Amino acid sequence: MTRRRTHRTSVISLNTGCGAQATNHPYPARTPVLALDFGALSVLVTTSAGDLVTASDVEFARQLAREAQAFARSVERSFHGLAGGKSVAA
């Protein structure tokens, strides 16, 4: 992964919990939309154009998939083997 060249000016933290979900919405006449729902807040991830997929879009989608898989492994590792499924940061 490459380092960011610009400094972040703001950070939004979206916490998972009851009701949080991620859903892929494939469409026959446009590019897919990934919806991340956190209760009253939704984040929609789309390609750079609604009717076109670029090489950059494909690379971002692959990076997103890799990082989501790594996130899932980290969450599972923290959860694994604890009574009642409750954990603290490891």
TrEMBL record:
Protein name per its UniProtKB record: Uncharacterized protein
